[in-house]
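re the bet — no i am not wrong, look at it urself. input seq straight from the record:
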Amino acid sequence: MKLDNANILITGGTLGIGHATAKLLIEKGANVAITGRDEKRTHKAARDIGAMPITADVANPYDVKRTFKTFMDEYGRLDALINNAGVGTRKLVEELTVEDFQEVYSVNVFGAAMMAARAAEIFKKQKHGNIINIGSTAALNGYAGGSVYASSKAALRSMTQSWQAELRKYNVRVMLINPSEVTTAFGQQDRRERDSEPNKLRGEEIAWAIKSALQMDSRGFIPEHSVWATNPF
């Protein structure tokens, strides 16, 4: 896929991986829209890198519908959806509540699925398109306190495989990128980005992986790609 003049929609694009990816893709010539739940932050983040802002919550079905209408009204064609929006919580098994699962799954699983469903409708008509889901190495290896988050990413991994089976015949590539720990605002209550730690991943490393996956000629695709810090210890 050529990135020059490609139309790309990134959820959760105001900080971290989403923002780094939007910035890199725009530098490579793509037209990018980013979504975020906070209007002020979304508009500032978009303005800083030349993206189109869409204030929306992927957990809200109305917002999902409005996001695609806004995007298509502006660009008329969608080449790639990057399902990046995500939330998490860390609790031991005896502390878990149904609400914990509902809060995280509404974004990481249900929101990602509803965004993909809308994108698939467009891609099947176009006979081409790309969906990149941002998973986690937590889906491959559970950890203490990870019941909610790790299982949500495992669900996303399973959905990715199902969508691959469904959409390949329409020339739609569905790919999963699994970052290990990234020093971003993820999991921070104040949503402020943490300082980068020299031995751990940044959003830029994941953005590079996303860009590379998209740039492969459309006759092939990478079903799943994990990105680990070389020596995080």
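see?? The chain has a mean pLDDT of 95. told u. also Helices lie at 16-27, 39-49, 61-75, 98-126, 147-167, 203-215. so pay up
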